Amino acid sequence: MMKRAVFIAGDENIYFPALVALESIREHNPEIFDFYICFNGDKISPYMKKTLKKRCINFIDSKDLSAYGIEKTFLSMNEGHWPVDVFYNYALPIHLGNMGYEYSYKVDYDILCTGKYILSEIEPNGVGFSGWANKVNLLKENVPEDFIDDIAKKGLISGCNVNYMNVGFIGFNNKIYTENNMQKKFTDSYLLLQKKCPQAKLLEQIAFSFLIESTAGGFMKIPEAYNHRVLSTRDSDDEFHFNTKNIHFITKFKPWRKLEKDKMKWFIFNGGSHMYLYRNIWLDYASKVDGFEYFCMERPLNTMQLAGMQMHVVRCFNEKIKSL
Prior knowledge:
Shape: globular
Radius of gyration: 20 Å
């Protein structure tokens, strides 16, 4: 039987949302994947160990991955939102490949699975990796034009507009990824960007775009349903169902953090009013996972509160319309 793994790496603060992510994937995709969570073993508590064992989630101590030199190579992360531990995500496909897994899937801790995966849609058969992709203009990501021209002449990228893949849900063909030194290519790209254009947005994403460019088309695009980000919306049917495999809670306003009305108003005025509706989906699911009451201070909104939130959204929209 083919072995497939799903993994999440970071620091100890990812523990509970990562647990929610992995449990939601298992619920919708039983008996397909083995599950792994990775952070510094000095930070795992007896309760965490007990819960992970109960849930059949394997723990990898990031100290056991020291051979990959992550913390020595990445002295800091330019984005500032995350610790350097997130770079273990790019070493784990090699590690898991050595453990006998043909495919592995990197999942961000802020993802919630809401539908069954169709493996033929996401499995990177014959290519290094798969993910939801589109195009990005590097100039709009604050990458200087002279730097773009220079690395384009060197053949590192095709030009200003490059393939861009959100790394929240990525499938890896572990053998191809390893044999083609893709971790090193990603690392070299990140360090180059960090040195030459530290002002660029989301260097991790741009570095992955450089890795995509290096494959000359040797990657697989998957449907957006597997990496549906909360700043966008999806069509729903006549009964208001919307087909989504993973909801990705991008932005700093995670559903387990306090909901603030003034921040809601800012998002509403800037086209993001819907993102707060996604929030309750995560809280409702997370409330059934071991440790919710301890690790999460927020609670799902009840029907009356959801109605009140929707009225607040409508009032803000009306206020915006009157101001135009």
